[in-house]
Write a structure and sequence with these properties.
287 residues, alpha/beta, Rossmann fold, 10-stranded mixed beta sheet, 34% helix
């Protein structure tokens, strides 16, 4: 069963990480009941700092910052009728490793990432990328529209309704089938429109191959369309997201193999990096 009841929310208290909180209503609608909040005191790069740096003082200041800001996050979550749990004492070390340790008791991770700025450069945070690569549970990467000027960074929601139009990248692998299960479960709850997209460079898949998928979705009584497009999968997925005005992308972390796969690093990775909307990266069978 594709459950989304327990969500882990890692935050470094930056504007990028807080975009997740703009979608609490949407997340609650699809079944989220409990949110774990984890703030990691990042000491992973302190070994490169020149001598004389007071590590103990740095940790103390970071913990103080968390104590000042996290209660407001808890209040916001609880005001939506959701349960909030703060992981304390605050973990210290490599953020990716600490997040992964905690994540196994959750259904999925929702993490904010720096998106594409005014110069369109790829600016996905290394922590977000590391979590996507190493997590054994699904990871939802939230992008934001950003504006940067002399006064700082402003982040805006990339879409109004998170699950209005779900683009599912489908390659017949187990992980893409799991993606579709999540999308179907969500669509049944909030009347989402699902686009099932199969992108294939060698054009070996026939549209008839999607008939079993279509039959299952018809039985589920969800609004859907299936599309088969020849071309580079990552480019096709990103292009179709814009053409269809999809509000989110669901993609598997691994596929079937060369020529067919949504392999993390070849397709999933650039989609997560380049997408202007949130990307749900499905994992499964690894816990």
């Amino acid at each position: 069963m594709a459950s989304l009841r327990k969500m882990l929310y890692p935050t470094d208290l930056s504007p990028y990480s807080k975009v997740v909180l703009d979608f609490l209503d949407d997340l609650k609608e699809v079944g989220v009941e409990e949110i774990g909040i984890v703030f990691v005191v990042n000491t992973s790069k302190l070994s490169t700092v020149a001598g004389g740096f007071d590590v103990g003082k740095y940790i103390e200041l970071e913990e103080k910052r968390a104590e000042e800001e996290i209660p407001g996050i808890v209040d916001l979550i609880e005001s939506q009728g959701l349960k909030a749990k703060v992981h304390k004492p605050y973990p210290t070390g490599n953020p990716v490793a600490e997040i992964i340790k905690i994540a196994n008791s959750y259904d999925f991770i929702a993490i904010g990432a720096r998106g594409r700025g005014i110069f369109k450069e790829i600016l996905l945070g290394s922590v977000s990328e590391g979590v996507v690569r190493r997590s054994k549970v699904p990871v939802y990467v939230f992008k934001s529209k950003i504006e940067e000027d002399e006064s700082g960074v402003k982040c805006y929601k990339p879409c109004e309704k998170l699950f209005k139009r779900i683009l599912v990248a489908y390659d017949f692998s187990d992980h893409s089938k799991l993606c579709l299960e999540y999308a179907k479960t969500i669509a049944q709850k909030v009347n989402s429109e699902i686009f099932v997209l199969h992108a294939d460079e060698d054009d070996s898949c026939k549209i008839d191959d999607l008939q079993s998928v279509e039959s299952d979705l018809k039985d589920s009584k969800v609004d859907f369309r299936s599309l088969k497009v020849c071309g580079s999968p990552a480019k096709v997925i990103l292009q179709k997201q814009k053409e269809l005005n999809a509000s989110t992308i669901f993609i598997g972390s691994r596929g079937l193999g060369l020529g067919k796969a949504l392999i993390l690093g070849s397709v999933s990775d650039p989609v997560v990096r380049m997408s202007e909307v949130p990307v749900f990266v499905c994992k499964g069978g690894e816990r």
